[in-house]
Design brief:
This protein has 6 helices and 11 strands. It has about 220 residues and is of the alpha/beta class. The strands form 2 sheets. Strands 6-7-5-4-8-9-11-10 form an 8-stranded mixed sheet. A 3-stranded antiparallel sheet has the order 1-2-3, with no helix packed on it. The longest helix is centred in the first third of the chain and has 13 residues. The structure holds S-adenosylmethionine (SAM). The site of S-adenosylmethionine has 19 residues, from helix 2 and strand 5.
């Protein structure tokens, strides 16, 4: 897949990227930040009662989910160990133009950029509360032994199944289930029945939750309830 995304404004004023080759956006055009907060922070991170939380993200992209998670961790005092996989890292020139950190302090803006500039393939402490490991790899051939610890929350943020079906397979959901801790969750903006059935087949208990603005539903899958 060759990726040459262009910046677009979404309904909440935050940017997203559009990939003309795929006809697909990185986020909801109804609000990128709103979607990320709703799906990953409020329906995923905030439901975890642990003090030390292992997160695994599929698709680092703009780093928006990582940034919002970092801000949340710094506020609530949780310690986050965040591992993310990305096959197509974005060029720095594009990252510099994204407006995700523009309403934040200079210190937070620097943290957003640090998420992008730290090395791939290495565990890096970004703040006292947030440690990041970025893995540059094709997730469709992912070696799960690269995940050092079992996971409490999976942020499943791949492009939609009708655009990239090889990211949404039974084998992938089985593997994610295997590396997830008891009572760990997987959250995704996608609410397709086919995806829900694969999660159930893998062993998860699934819930359809209200979706972010512009979307009726999203999915949360839990291991062991
Ligand atoms: C829906 S976007 C979300 C990205 C990110 N979470 C964000 O908020 O910007 C999907 C991401 O998956 C990445 N991706 C696409 N195919 C991939 C693959 N085979 N392996 C790993 N990442 C992939 C894309 O480059 C893109 O960054």
């Amino acid at each position: 897949m060759s990726v040459k995304p262009v910046i677009e404004l979404t309904a909440d004023g935050s940017h997203t990227l559009f990939v003309p080759e795929l006809g697909e956006h990185y986020h909801s055009i109804n609000g990128a930040i709103q979607e990320s907060i709703h799906v990953f922070i409020n329906s995923g991170l905030k439901c975890c009662t642990k003090d030390i939380v292992q997160i695994f993200e599929i698709g680092f992209g703009t780093g928006l989910n990582a940034f919002l998670t970092l801000l949340n961790a710094n506020n609530c005092g949780k310690k986050i160990l965040y591992t993310t996989v990305e096959a197509y890292p974005l060029p720095d020139s594009l990252i510099q133009e994204l407006n995700y950190s523009q309403n934040h302090s200079k210190a937070d803006q620097d943290l957003y950029h640090k998420l992008h500039t730290v090395d791939w393939g290495r565990e890096v402490e970004i703040t006292e509360n947030f440690t990041l490991t970025k893995i540059k790899d094709d997730f469709t051939h992912f070696d799960f032994s690269q995940i050092k610890h079992n996971v409490d929350i999976v942020y499943f943020d791949a492009f939609a199944p009708d655009k990239q079906s090889d990211m949404w397979t039974q084998q992938i959901f089985n593997q994610l289930y295997d590396v997830t801790n008891y009572q760990g969750v997987l959250v995704t903006y996608c609410a397709k029945g086919m995806v829900r059935r694969m999660m159930q087949q893998a062993g998860y208990t699934t819930e359809r939750l209200p979706g972010p603005p512009g979307k009726r539903e999203m999915l949360r899958a839990t291991k062991g309830i």
